[in-house]
Amino acid sequence: MNCRLGCGACCIAPSITSPIPGMPHGKPAGVRCIQLNDDNLCQIFGQAERPELCARFAATEDVCGNTNEEALWLITSLEAATQS
Ligand code: SF4
Ligand code: SF4
User: Fold this and answer.
1) Ligand 1 centroid vs 84 CA: distance in angstroms?
2) 20 to 30 A Cα–Cα from 24, which one of 43, 44, 54, 59?
């Protein structure tokens, strides 16, 4: 599937342990990435500073669901499952 541009769920729901410009220690789960703009687009897309994890994240129906709300719920659930 193609990413629903403007969704942003994968920039909010998961924890990211690698440094992000403006968030040197990464971000906790459920916290909006500082690089996510008001249109829910990544401000450092394509730049070397963007965490490798972000570049590797590919949109799939399993993770992104059919709506932005579903994506938030699915990614939050996955995050919780991998933390326990
Ligand atoms: S959760 Fe999926 S659809 Fe939403 S922004 Fe991320 S990759 Fe795109
Ligand atoms: S760096 Fe960009 S792609 Fe990665 S979580 Fe932040 S806004 Fe999303």
Assistant:
1) 24
2) 59
Instruction: Enter the pTM of the model.
Output: 0.94
Is there a contact between 18 and 26 (Cβ–Cβ < 8 Å)?
yes
- Which tokens is 68 given? 């932005």
CA angle centred on 25, ends 39 and 42, rounded to 5°: 20
Reference 16, options 40, 49, 38; nearest CA is 49
CA of 35 to the centre of ligand 2 (A): 6
| pLDDT averaged over every residue in the chain | 95
- The 8-class DSSP code of residue 9 comes to G
Give the residue-averaged pLDDT of 32-51.
97
Residues with CB under 6 A from ligand 1: 3-4, 7-10, 59, 64, 71
Structure token digits, residue 35: 């690089």
Inter-residue contact 11 to 68 (CB < 8 Å): no
